[in-house]
Amino acid sequence: MAIKVIKPGLATSIQDRGRWGYYHVGIPPSGAMDQYSFLAANLLVGNDENAAVLECTYLGPELEFQQNAVVAVTGAEMSPRLNGQEMPLWTSFEVRAGDRLSFDFLKRGARTYVAVSGGIDVPIILGSRSLYGLGAFGGFEGRNLQEGDLLPIGANGSAFVERSVPQDLRIAFPELIEIRVMMGLYDYLLTEEGLKNFFETTWTLTPVADRIGFRYKGSELRFIKRKQPFGAGSDPSNIVDAAYPIGSIQVPGGLEPIILHRDAVSGGGYAMIGTVISADMDAVAQTQPNSKTRFIAVDLDQALAARQERNQRIARLREALAA
Amino acid sequence: MSRQQILSPLPGTFYRRPNPTSEPYVTEGDPVTADQTICLIEIMKQFNEVKAGVNGKLVEFLVANEDAVMAGQPIAIVEIE
């Protein structure tokens, strides 16, 4: 039994917590871009926390269920409709064989998560069911969903329990997003003015924002003119190739900063001026093109405190949704 | 006669032409058919065609070429006979 894809949406993929431990050999973690909303969706339907879900970007799919199931929709505001009737977000609901699930236009945020009791049961590759699109593996046949796909559902789905995420544990969508950054390793290559511009500019997210990276415009960041070292490209923003952390920010040509996200390449020759702290990567994932972002510098202690705060929030979420 | 708005299904950048050197898909005042492409929305390096969705006359575009649009935002008005 399965779910049939009637319309695939724009870029709907199967994701779980991710594929850890292979980035050093060039395979990125992939996995849900907004891990908090992903976790909430699984907890709502009584799944294992790492069950695979659908990640729907900007435009939702239309799905036909061929079996009864429990479903929950979290993340970006794209209201689900069951046989045309609007259903709540952040709340579990039952679907029957033959039911159709569709979505309204996106209102706020960028990525919506759809968990189904039992999880989407595609093969586990290198420890994960997540799609890595550039590598054409994982997910459903190594690609985004297409019309007519039959998505297998795991057999051990839970019985329906009505659960809802309390309002204060849902994600917020501020008009101006503040993203915390730890500077380094190459921020010293920026001019003083370039560094100042990075923090004083209100950046606009361009439409070039996908699972690999998020590109912003708004200002020019000058790099110090120097004699490029052997092995580095000729532009002042080039370095001798180095490993790219997830969340690292590069500024090719000093023009448009790019935040690398969970499907990023693992290394290259652009100077990383800073790295988004792990606690703020979910917020990056939920930004829309043309939305406004400011970057705030934090130190390691502040970054670790933010991570702890995020972990406490996750603990409260688990507690609120415990059966 | 009634008027119907065409909504953008996606957030992104709005384009009237298939490429910078081509003529626009539709000129204001032209007749359109439901399956006719009226514009492109660019997002994630993909250019998505938006169809008119109804038969009629495209009276007016509500956004300028290369403007940013939101999902659900009205982008054009079609007069239906």
**Rg of chain A (CA only):** 20 Å
Spatial strand sequence of the major β-sheet of chain A:
12-19-16-17-14-13-20
Coarse shape of chain B: globular
Separation of the first and last Cα atoms of chain A: 26 Å
CATH class category label of chain B: Mainly Beta
Strand % of chain A is: 25-35%
Please name the CATH topology of chain B.
OB fold (Dihydrolipoamide Acetyltransferase, E2P)
Broad structural category of chain A: alpha+beta
Helix and strand topology:
The complex is a heterodimer of chains A (323) and B (81).
Chain A: E1 2-7, E2 13-15, H1 35-44, E3 53-57, E4 62-65, E5 69-75, E6 80-82, E7 85-86, E8 93-95, E9 100-103, E10 111-116, E11 150-152, E12 176-183, H2 192-200, E13 203-209, E14 213-217, E15 238-243, E16 248-250, E17 258-260, E18 267-270, E19 272-276, H3 281-285, E20 292-297, H4 300-321
Parallel strand pairs in A: 12-20
Antiparallel strand pairs in A: 1-4, 1-11, 2-3, 3-10, 4-9, 5-8, 5-10, 6-7, 6-9, 12-19, 13-14, 13-20, 14-17, 15-18, 16-17, 16-19
Helix pairs in contact in A: 1-4
Chain B: E1 2-7, E2 12-15, E3 31-32, E4 37-43, E5 46-51, E6 56-61, E7 68-69, E8 74-80
Antiparallel strand pairs in B: 1-8, 2-4, 2-7, 3-6, 4-5, 6-8
General description of the model:
The complex is a heterodimer of chains A (323) and B (81). With 323 residues, chain A is an alpha+beta fold. Chain A has two domains: 2-169, no CATH class; 176-311, Cyclophilin, CATH 2.40.100.10. Chain A has helices at residues 35-44, 192-200, 281-285, 300-321, and strands spanning 2-7, 13-15, 53-57, 62-65, 69-75, 80-82, 85-86, 93-95, 100-103, 111-116, 150-152, 176-183, 203-209, 213-217, 238-243, 248-250, 258-260, 267-270, 272-276, 292-297. In chain A, strand 13 and strand 14 form a beta hairpin. The two termini of chain A are 26 Å apart. Chain B has strands spanning 2-7, 12-15, 31-32, 37-43, 46-51, 56-61, 68-69, 74-80. Helix content of chain B is 0%, strand content 49%. The model of chain B has no long low-confidence stretch (mean pLDDT 94). The N and C termini of chain B lie close together (5 Å). Chain B has 81 residues and is an all-beta fold. Chain B has a single domain, classed as RNA polymerase II/Efflux pump adaptor protein, barrel-sandwich hybrid domain (OB fold (Dihydrolipoamide Acetyltransferase, E2P), Beta Barrel). In chain B, the strands form two sheets. Chain B has a four-stranded antiparallel β-sheet, with no helix packed on it. A four-stranded antiparallel β-sheet of chain B has the order 5-4-2-7, with no helix packed on it. The A-B interface holds A 10-11, 57-59, 104-107, 110, 207-210, 288-290 and B 7, 9-13, 42-46, 48, 68, 70-72.
